[in-house]
Specification:
single chain; 286 residues; alpha+beta; five-stranded mixed β-sheet; 5 helices; 13% helix
Length: 286
Amino acid sequence: MKFARLGESGSEIPVVIDGDRTFDLRPVTSDVDGDFLAGDPVGRTQEALDAGTLPELADADSLRIGSPIARPSAVICIGQNYAAHARESGAEPPTVPILFLKTPNTVVGPNDTVTIPRGSEKTDWEVELGIVIGTRAAYLDSVDEAEAHIAGYVVANDVSERAYQMDVSGGQWSKGKIAFGFNPTGPWLVPAAEVDAQNLNLRSWVNGEPRQDSNTNDMIFDVRTIVHHLSQYVTLEPGDLILTGTPQGVAFGGKFPYLKAGDVVEIEIEGLGRQRQEFVAWEAQR
């Protein structure tokens, strides 16, 4: 079972993909949002599938793919969570999770065009496993409690502008992370029970050339540790998105050029799907 949202931006239809068939979820929910994710989404959807109350969406393949979750209340990110990436960035692996934020309007469809910020010379890619929260989490007492609060997992590209992140940041990374569209997400939300989150291959390519190739088992802080740790500082709400860090192989490491207009980035995570974005130059709005 995979949840998705199809259609034009702002008018997406919630769907469930079951095998090779796509079904309209609107008899069950108006959107794949926090309310839906907090209310047994898998059980309710399976019941509707079994009862035959979800109409098949015949034209699904012709529709734009949106982010598989409606705009979250928060996008919380973990930095330098793979040791090799930390070292290619010139830092030692952290001893506690590094936190920064993206804004909700960074979350767009997995294949949407991404605009390089005005004046940017250091726009970068980062394939990341995204955690989607299913039930509110605050002050969890143990790491073991974290799993019950995870609805599922998504592919995310934590697009970054490194000069804004590092050179004019004042010590905070978010300036380089919050440009509109800097978080292509999806194509699907896969329920947590169907994902071995700590054994997923993740890869990226630029113009067809390999860049990143790693596995989530190389994370410094695993997904349960991340959710538990964050819950000590922030109340995580249903539908919130947590990005868990990226492995080595980004432009910031010095081996590859930064992105320019016309470049195409592709990323994928085993079992969670693949994305493709063309990067375009900023133009003044008329």
